[in-house]
């Protein structure tokens, strides 16, 4: 039922929406494309009709960045190392894959006493302090000054640590591509990790990310963090909506606004591999960074201990002289 | 703090630093080491990240304790070539480690190329450090000219 409904929506509403969208091209303000200030996206779930125009727009614009694996894949040791090959399943669009960086989740909920199906575009949240970037052991993941986090396909070894530390398990691996093939493909690495890069190259040119540009319903809005956060809070106050992404993992650059609480949404969406949750998420980097702050006082502790020992020694020497 | 305590302190801290340092790479699960009972935590990146930072903090305490003690006692030491490599690699590890730690906070202080350089330097320096320690242990080479 969902598929046919989506196809219907795609055929009708999208056509009209696309005409309207192309008539007035969406662009970023010059101050936003060149700014060092973080860019934040606001996603209004109540506006999404699940037409998947964003999914297709993303594929159209980013297909040049998709992996082109060499086959057969080199044998990897030990045998437990999984081969992750999505190259023959590039059309899969009901979850995140290396060839599908945004997809639509759905949830049947009750809004103001009325049964309703909500559609939710899901992709990387672009955390303010992204663990995928900070904990990548090679520096293959990077965060731009405008807050976009992305992976360098020429440096990534595909170890999937970024996925392991991501609170939403967003990055997806494709085996048979990347630098690991030139190093020790049997023993280290396993491809390259892929996820939404927020169309960083389009933003640099002052263009909108494809998912925003193609959306016929203006579900998403991108802009300076201060403006978007203010707007999100105002909408939530006005409509009684709920916000997600503002506090999660210490704050993200994606804010969802929903007509129902996210606990309820989380219980209704399909979750699993490539299908992120909507749970509350604490700051994943907090504990490690808190202990790192102790490094500031560590020299003082060392110096104090040495002085303590020296003073004690002097006192003992003085005592024995008497 | 007596010398025996200091020796144990240093060895334990260095052991955990090296272990959790390698744990920053996704290798312990791949190569079954995390399957050994009691070592499952080596595949948990947030745990190894925390312990690595904790051990690094304790190492900084140790180094400043040692330096201050030398200064207060006006001790002058002469290093052997092995000692020079040991001090150089340890200093390099500390500097690159501190710069990498700063990067982990919600700031974006370095260009991407420099981050890659820091990681590769950190790995090269730990290899040099381990080789020096092994060389010193096996061939009984001292760090200091007595």
Q: In brief, what are we looking at here?
A:
The complex is a heterodimer of chains A (322) and B (146). Chain A is α+β, with helices and mostly antiparallel strands.
Class by SSE composition of chain B: mainly alpha
Highest-level CATH class of chain A: Alpha Beta
Counting DSSP E segments of at least 2 residues, the number of strands of chain B comes to 2
Our measurement of the CA-to-CA distance between the termini of chain B, rounded to an integer number of angstroms, reads 22 Å
What do these coordinates show?
- The complex is a heterodimer of chains A (about 325) and B (about 150).
- Chain A is of the alpha+beta class and about 325 residues long.
- Helices cover about 35% and strands about 15% of the residues of chain A.
- Chain A contains 10 helices and 10 strands.
- In chain A, the strands form 4 sheets. A 4-stranded mixed β-sheet of chain A has the order 8-1-10-9, covered by helices on one side.
- The radius of gyration of chain A is 24 Å and the shape is globular.
- The N terminus of chain A is likely disordered.
- Chain B is globular, with a radius of gyration of 17 Å.
- By secondary structure, chain B is mainly α.
- Helices cover about 65% and strands about 5% of the residues of chain B.
- Classes of the chains: A alpha+beta (about 325), B mainly alpha (about 150).
- At the A-B interface, α5 and α10 of A face α2, α3 and α4 of B.
Any chance you could write out the topology, listing elements then pairs?
The complex is a heterodimer of chains A (322) and B (146).
Chain A: H1 2-23, H2 30-33, E1 39-44, H3 53-62, E2 103-111, E3 114-122, H4 131-134, E4 141-143, E5 149-151, H5 161-165, E6 172-174, E7 192-194, H6 200-204, H7 210-214, E8 220-224, H8 225-239, E9 242-244, E10 254-258, H9 262-268, H10 286-321
Parallel strand pairs in A: 1-10
Antiparallel strand pairs in A: 1-8, 2-3, 4-5, 6-7, 9-10
Chain B: H1 3-22, H2 45-72, E1 78-79, H3 81-103, H4 112-138, E2 144-145
Antiparallel strand pairs in B: 1-2
Helix pairs in contact in B: 1-2, 3-4
